[in-house]
From TrEMBL:
One of its GO terms (cellular component) is nucleus. Pfam families: SMC_Nse1, zf-RING-like. PANTHER family: NON-SMC ELEMENT 1-RELATED, NON-STRUCTURAL MAINTENANCE OF CHROMOSOMES ELEMENT 1 HOMOLOG. Signal peptide: none annotated. Its main location: nucleus. Belongs to the NSE1 family. The gene is Nsmce1. The keyword Lipoprotein does not apply. It catalyses: S-ubiquitinyl-[E2 ubiquitin-conjugating enzyme]-L-cysteine + [acceptor protein]-L-lysine = [E2 ubiquitin-conjugating enzyme]-L-cysteine + N(6)-ubiquitinyl-[acceptor protein]-L-lysine. Residues 188-229 form the RING-type domain. One of its GO terms (biological process) is double-strand break repair via homologous recombination. This is Non-structural maintenance of chromosomes element 1 homolog. Keywords: Chromosome, DNA damage, DNA recombination, DNA repair, Metal-binding, Nucleus, Telomere, Transferase, Ubl conjugation pathway, Zinc, Zinc-finger.
């Protein structure tokens, strides 16, 4: 009694193609694209049906072990969409694009970011790792270049010399990170997705994304932890 998946139209195919070539698409862009694809290919369009439109595509992607996933930017809390390959473990997707030593630098950078207090790693700390790589030591100049490429390819994002995981990377690697960093990877107590940049309760250790912190404490006179009710000692954004 499987429900027949809704038909894939040219509008769906066009949408998927753009999403794949973008790597990641911000929510408002995805909504515009939805409208554009439907109008171009004369397919019924309803502005509040983007999720249905995407789940139609996903039902056809399932046999290919692919999926359009929605994730939230840790900076501003906005929705983003990325096409994820479910069959690929870990960094296989990256393995075809980067050398062994570049991948090792990425993994070590990811370690620093995930093990940090606030979800950032400084370029100094990352560049200090470059000459300790097992695969092939990297000169600082070379490592700087590699970091630039990781930012261009949307695996990392950089702010004032501090690096964190790009939203695209978090969407694609959430499962990998949660299973490989079980002791340290946190889920946000509010939205339950992986939190890299987060504030952490000093009493009970739960974490929350900054945009979630902002929303949760809005209108509260005294910020208290949603779990243990102790005073929230971090400066709320």
């Amino acid at each position: 009694n499987t429900v027949m998946a809704a038909r894939m139209t040219d509008a769906h195919r066009r949408f998927l193609q753009v999403l794949m070539s973008n790597g990641i698409t911000e929510g408002s862009e995805a909504r515009k694209l939805h409208q554009h694809c439907c109008e171009t290919d004369k397919v019924y369009y309803a502005h509040d049906k983007l999720d249905d439109f995407i789940s139609t595509i996903n039902s056809h992607l399932q046999p290919l072990f692919m999926q359009i996933r929605k994730g939230i930017s840790e900076d501003d809390g906005r929705a983003h969409y990325a096409v994820v390959n479910l069959a690929e473990t870990e960094v296989t997707k990256m393995a075809s694009d980067y050398t062994e030593s570049e991948l090792e630098l990425f993994r070590k950078t990811m370690d620093l970011i995930i093990l940090s207090e606030n979800g950032f790693a400084s370029s100094t700390d990352i560049l200090n790792l470059a000459d300790q790589l097992k695969t092939k030591k990297m000169k600082k100049k070379e490592a700087e270049q590699v970091l630039k490429v990781f930012v261009e390819d949307k695996w990392l994002s950089e702010r004032n010399g501090e690096y964190t995981l790009h939203t695209r990377c978090i969407i694609e690697m959430e499962q990998y990170i949660l299973s490989n960093y079980q002791d340290v990877a946190r889920k946000c107590n509010i939205c339950h997705s992986l939190a890299i940049q987060s504030q952490v309760c000093e009493s009970c250790g739960i974490g929350m994304h900054l945009p979630c912190v902002r929303k949760y404490f809005r209108g509260q006179t005294e910020p208290r932890c949603p779990k243990c009710n102790e005073f929230w000692s971090c400066d709320t954004p």
